[in-house]
Specification:
Blueprint (H helix, E strand, L loop, with lengths): L2 H24 L1 H35 L5 H18 L3 H11 L1 H22 L18
Helix pairs in contact: 1-2, 2-3, 2-4, 3-4
Amino acid sequence: MNTFFLILIGLPALEIFIMIKIGGQIGAFNTIALIFLTAIIGVFYARLQGIQTLKSGILNIYQNKAPIYELMSGASIACAALLLIVPGFLTDSVGFTLLFPFSRKVLFRLILRKGGKTNETKNNIDAIDGEIINKDKDEL
């Protein structure tokens, strides 16, 4: 079966199930208020993290460094903000996990570690340093 179809149907069904269980424990009004509160706090914190990441990226550009971590952080913050806007407790927990810098670094290390193992065999080439000397003199 198509994975996208399973996610499209399964994720909302799981979110509704979790909302019903939490609503049964704390009440419907409190559940709705908690969903709005997590969305507001999450988007506000995503804005702060986005501004901080942007400043760090500009600083890296001024220092002639590639802002690769900042680009990855910016993308994960955008995904986190989207997940926090979508109502539900499962998406909010994943969104908050992506929003905190510590958990982002751990996630990036896991992703890069898996990607790094496949590239190590391709880049394992011996190189010899050399210098080219041109014996011909330039004539005008």
